[in-house]
Amino acid sequence: MTAQIIDGNALAKQVRAEAAGRTQALKARGIQPHLAILLVGDDPASQVYVKHKVADSEQTGLHAALERHPTTLPEADLLARIRALNDDPSVHGILVQLPLPRHMDSHKVIETISPAKDVDGFHVASAGALMVGQPGFWPCTPHGCLKMLDSIGYDLKGKHAVVIGRSNIVGKPMAMMLLGRDATVTICHSRTRDLKAMTLQADVVVAAVGKRNVLTKDMVKPGAVVIDVGMNRNDEGKLCGDVDFEGVKEVAGWITPVPGGVGPMTRAMLLINTLQAAERASV
Ligand code: GUN
Fold first, then answer.
1. CATH fold for domain 31-113
2. Which residues 6+ apart lie within 8 Å of 275 measured at CB?
3. Residue bearing the CA closest to ligand 1, atom 11
4. Class of the 140-263 domain?
5. Is the CB–ligand 1 distance for residue 43 below 6 Å?
6. pLDDT digits over 176-186, tens only?
């Protein structure tokens, strides 16, 4: 069997088209969706990420205001800036790009963002809302993964999903979202003993460890859906995921590529969260 590819670029394009429509509807009511992006320091990867976030927003008609702050910015000044943005009714979403410089406490910074503007979905209130099934903001990466499953019409009810990786922004929220769809969920991680025994039982595998070849062909049940959240470099310096794509695609039923899989979906879901924030603020 050769797996069918879930094309993240194509799906993200559809999501952006939906976002553009929702943006127009807000603008027709005199509301300009507005995302504030705060970048502290000069981390090269972060610079690229925020550039994409701004470009995606502007292409969709959302206003993205990028603020660059020096690495030396005192934490108290960043917190004060966030509080000012919390109080500004023209700002709907606030995103603080991570990682932050070492002198800052990321948790404290994120907790300073108003939950109503937490479009990254990283605030404890957002995590709690997802946990108890109340409206909040879902983190963009797992939300994008769920959209990818929806795009192939996959019914998760009663299925076994194995999530590899237990981060607060991917693994744990992903598990909650899958549980919310009546899947049975196992969360594994890099220290799980006999990971293969787990993944071989899975109808859906989400790999989010940040290490190459975490999932190989011998670990996948024939026909399973494989979602690859990883972003790594191979020996030739080329972008690759956590999944041995060439091997696993011979066994899986569906698979997401890297690049062109989860990455574009993560970016697209940020637009959706920002629009959701603007729509909620305007009712
Ligand atoms: N750094 C890497 N990915 C992300 C993300 O999704 N949000 C934020 N705020 N920082 C990041």
1. Rossmann fold (3.40.50)
2. 19, 22, 23, 26, 33, 62
3. 98
4. alpha beta
5. no
6. 999 999 999 99
